[in-house]
Write a structure and sequence with these properties.
It is built from twelve helices and 13 strands. It has 377 residues and is α/β, with parallel strands linked by helices. It is globular, with a radius of gyration of 21 Å. The protein binds pyridoxal-5'-phosphate.
Length: 377
Amino acid sequence: MTTLDVRTGVPFLDLRSVSETVAAEVLAGWGTLVESGAFIGGDAVSAFEQDLAAFCGTSYAVGMANGTDALHLTLRALGIGPGDSVIVPANTFVATAEAVVLAGATPRFADVDPDTLLLTTDSIAAARLPSTKAVIAVHLYGQMPDMDAISAYAGSNGLLLVEDAAQAQGATFGGRRAGGFGVAGCFSFYPGKNLGAFGDAGAVVTSDPVLDDCLRSLRDHGRAFGTHHDHVLVGTNSRLDAVQAVVLTAKLRHLDAWNDARSELMTLYRELLDPGRATPVAEQAGGRGVHHLAVVRVSERTRVRHLLDEQGISTGIHYPVPCHLMKPYCRYADGDLPVAERAADEVLSLPMYPHLSADDVRRVAETVNRVADGRLP
Ligand SMILES: Cc1ncc(COP(=O)(O)O)c(C=O)c1O
């Protein structure tokens, strides 16, 4: 994930300082696991689930093997399947749409707000069909859409609201944490996320005891609670590894501080970037994002990205193709989604991680301003 020599360049992502912060605690926790042999389930997983639920303000958290399973199994636990449709934004990581198809349902791709690139009630209404049972609100780049409006719309139209909070651990809207608005909030703890494991991991948070029970069963081969051979559902194996739970428990204690550091860096980017040349994606009113990604919009992205690369600045694109134009998903498309399509051509993700230095942000912003102005090389 560290793509450049940090002595000379600015990598897009560098997780070494984050990992070093928790290394001693993680190694001690792993030592306890090795002694106990409790590698599946056990105290380490339960402790993380309790901490995560408390952090999100929900009654329960269910550890999963990854974020895609968190979404897919949530939809299944909600009884969504063949004949149902689920609204997802077109500009998201493919897993949001993938989970809908894995559940046997049909994705309905919605366009997004031109400034925040997030779902709105209007875009949800435009995508809604009589078959629509749920909407997945994606907290893209770390910020939540207007969850008050979306919750109210979902409630008054009989739609289940699921949050894809994979990129937004710790984000808030109206002071409430991501994951606490919908019937369920789904997280990925892929290493590069704001709360990242040392491998794949995920979780679902909910305050619904029936959903909690069902998810615990689905992640564990459909076992009835407390049994070994009583398989009551067609489940799968999507348990959170105890070794990852140890990492996540240690990291969760630092998450707010790391998110604050990202916030300061994003403020600096906003101050320094010339909005005529590189426009940061707008902040959602009422929300406090956690800046998983620092995304700007530029014209001539390929040229800009190439010149930045030559200056030792590594960038990403999230995402170059909206889901409704991808080969496996275009069959579900229903017309153009112009905002998502234009954004896909313009978005550019700048370096962002908690231990990125202010000097590096200055260097990146100054170089972006020069490059996007055509004054480089
Ligand atoms: C918005 C979004 N949803 C879902 C996922 C899927 O998570 P995972 O890779 O853990 O399966 C990701 C991860 O990249 C994501 O960014």
